[in-house]
Design a protein that fits this description.
Pfam families: DUF5133. It comes from Streptomyces albus. By secondary structure, the chain is mainly alpha-helical. The protein is built from 3 helices and no strands. It starts with a helix and ends with a helix.
Length: 61
């Protein structure tokens, strides 16, 4: 089961914002974990790929 596209969009936005700001390691870890759980993956790279694909697919529909 995949999270709602809007939820994933918000998580992706937050992930990118935190990634660009030093000193946000714990918050970035939390968002990364949430993305993994939300996309049923174990690796952030897989989670990002899955979330982006799901968001893109929802925009096309």
């Amino acid at each position: 089961m995949m999270a709602h596209p809007e939820t994933l969009r918000e998580l992706l936005t937050r992930y990118e914002a935190l990634r660009s700001r030093p000193g946000r390691g714990r918050e970035l870890d939390d968002v990364s974990y949430t993305l993994c759980v939300s996309t049923a993956t174990r690796d952030i790279r897989d989670a990002l790929r899955a979330a982006r694909a799901h968001v893109a697919g929802s925009q096309a529909a």
